[in-house]
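Project outcomes to date are best conveyed with an example. Our students and postdoctoral researchers have been running inverse folding experiments weekly, and each run begins with a structure described purely in C-alpha cells. The record below, which covers 387 residues, was selected by the lab manager from last quarter's runs and is presented without edits.
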C-alpha cells in the first residue's frame, strides 16, 4: 500500500464516541442509525479488541466492507520492546502520521506488573516544554501534544500485547497478573512523557474513553493524572473528567522548587496546595498523591521531611517517595537508603502513608523520569546503556 493510501484511511481505534459518530456520518450512514452503529463499533473496538472489521459479526457485510474501504483499526506500532529483569516492559511506539508532513511521532509507554495489578504509564506529549532539572524527558524539546486517539492507543496496544481482551492468551515471558477477572492492565498513570495538564482537552477525552463501562472499563479511581503543578488546570481537571490527582512536589521551599521544577516561579507552592485543597472530589477516601523525588543532599534532610508534613496539613494526602532514577548526564544522585528511610519514617509517624516507590525497569531506562524518544531527530532511538 502506498503512503498516501495509508494516510487516507485513518484508524477508528482510539476515537471518542462523538468522533466515531462523525466518522460514520462521513461514510453517509443515516442519522437515525449513528447511535446504534457507534455502539456496535465501540463494543468490538474497546470491549473485544478486534483488529479487523471482518470480525464484527453483528454488523452487516456491506457495512463492514464500506468501513474497511474507508478506515482501519490500526494501533500505534511497537518499534521496540524491552523487557526488564523485573518484568517491566517498555515500548517505543510510533504513531501513525497525522498529516502528510508528520513523519509519525515516537513516544514511550511503560507497563509495570505486580502480583495483584498491572499499571500502564502513558505519555501525553512527545517530549515536554517544561525543564525539571532531574527529568530526562525535560531534555527533549516538545514536538507536539498527543491526540486522544494516540493516548488511548497506548492502552489498546498494551491490552493487545498482553492478551488483555476476552478470549486472548497472556504472555508467559514475564510477570503478568492473571486469574479470574484480573486484568493485565488494571491501572493507568499519566506519568510518562509530557505534562498532561498542558494537553488537558485530549487527556480528558482519553480518560473518558478509558473509563467507559461498555468498553475499556477502567474505574476513574484507577486512573491517575500527574502534574508538575499547572494550577489553573487542576480545578478544570477535577470538575471535568475527575480522575485521581498526583502532584510532583519535590521541594518544600519555593527557592529550591523554583530550581527543580521551574514552573514553580509561575505557580508557587502556596497556590499549588490551595488548588489541591480545592480539588473537586478530593477526600480521605480519594487522597491526592504527592510525589517527592529523593535527591542526595538536595531535598532529603529530616528538616525538609518535617516541613513537608506541616505543609500538607488539611490536604487529604498520600506521599510517594521516589528514589531518583539516573540517566546519562544527570546532575543529581539518588539519596542513600538510610536517608530515604529516615525521611519516610518522619512522614509515616506524622500519620501519612509514605511508600517508597520501588524503582522498576531501571535497567531498560523505563523508570520515572527516564523516558525520552528521539522523535526530534526522526529516527529510531538508539539503545542507551544505563551504566
Ligand atoms: N509531567 C508530569 C508527569 C510525568 S513525570 C509531572 O511532572 O508530574 C512523572 C513523575 O516522575 C513525576 O513525579 C516526575 O517528577 C518524576 N520524575 C521525573 N524524573 C525523575 C527521575 N529522574 N527520577 C525519579 N522520578 C522522576
Ligand atoms: Fe515535564 Fe514532568 Fe519531566 Fe517536569 S517532570 S520535565 S513536567 S515530564
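After processing, the design step wrote out the following sequence:
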Amino acid at each position: 500500500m502506498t503512503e498516501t493510501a495509508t494516510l487516507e484511511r485513518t484508524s477508528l481505534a482510539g476515537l471518542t464516541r462523538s468522533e466515531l459518530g462523525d466518522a460514520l456520518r462521513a461514510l453517509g450512514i443515516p442519522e437515525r442509525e449513528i447511535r446504534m452503529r457507534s455502539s456496535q463499533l465501540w463494543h468490538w473496538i474497546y470491549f473485544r479488541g478486534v483488529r479487523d472489521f471482518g470480525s464484527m459479526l453483528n454488523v452487516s457485510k456491506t457495512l463492514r466492507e464500506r468501513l474497511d474501504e474507508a478506515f482501519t483499526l490500526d494501533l500505534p506500532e511497537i518499534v521496540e520492546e524491552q523487557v526488564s529483569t523485573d518484568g517491566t516492559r517498555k515500548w517505543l511506539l510510533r504513531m501513525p502520521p497525522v498529516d502528510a508532513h508528520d513523519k509519525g511521532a515516537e513516544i514511550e509507554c511503560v507497563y509495570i506488573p505486580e502480583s495483584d495489578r498491572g499499571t500502564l504509564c502513558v505519555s501525553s506529549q512527545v517530549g515536554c516544554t517544561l525543564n525539571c532539572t532531574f527529568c530526562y524527558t525535560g531534555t527533549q524539546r516538545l514536538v507536539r501534544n498527543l491526540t486522544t486517539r494516540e493516548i488511548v492507543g497506548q492502552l489498546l496496544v498494551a491490552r493487545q500485547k498482553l492478551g488483555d481482551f476476552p478470549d486472548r492468551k497472556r504472555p508467559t515471558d514475564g510477570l503478568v497478573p492473571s486469574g479470574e477477572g484480573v486484568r493485565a492492565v488494571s491501572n493507568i498513570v499519566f506519568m510518562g512523557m509530557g505534562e498532561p495538564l498542558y494537553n488537558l482537552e485530549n487527556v480528558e477525552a482519553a480518560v473518558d474513553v478509558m473509563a467507559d463501562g461498555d468498553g475499556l472499563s477502567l474505574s476513574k479511581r484507577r486512573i491517575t493524572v500527574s502534574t508538575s503543578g499547572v494550577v489553573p488546570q487542576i480545578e478544570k481537571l477535577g470538575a471535568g473528567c475527575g480522575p485521581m490527582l498526583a502532584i510532583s512536589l519535590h521541594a518544600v521551599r519555593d527557592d529550591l522548587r523554583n530550581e527543580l521544577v521551574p514552573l514553580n516561579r509561575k505557580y508557587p507552592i502556596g497556590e499549588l496546595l490551595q488548588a489541591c485543597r480545592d480539588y473537586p472530589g478530593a477526600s480521605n477516601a480519594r487522597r491526592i498523591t504527592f510525589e517527592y523525588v529523593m535527591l542526595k543532599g538536595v531535598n532529603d534532610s529530616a528538616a525538609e521531611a518535617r516541613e513537608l508534613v506541616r505543609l500538607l496539613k488539611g490536604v487529604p494526602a498520600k506521599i510517594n517517595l521516589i528514589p531518583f532514577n539516573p540517566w546519562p548526564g544527570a546532575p543529581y544522585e539518588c539519596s542513600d537508603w538510610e536517608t530515604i528511610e529516615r525521611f519516610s519514617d518522619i512522614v509515616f509517624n506524622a500519620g501519612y502513608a509514605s511508600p517508597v516507590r520501588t524503582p522498576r525497569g531501571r535497567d531498560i531506562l523505563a523508570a520515572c523520569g527516564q523516558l525520552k524518544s528521539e522523535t526530534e531527530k526522526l529516527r529510531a532511538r538508539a539503545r542507551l546503556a544505563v551504566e
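Residues 231 and 272 are 6 Å apart (CA to CA). The first helix runs from residue 3 to 8. The training component of this project remains on track.
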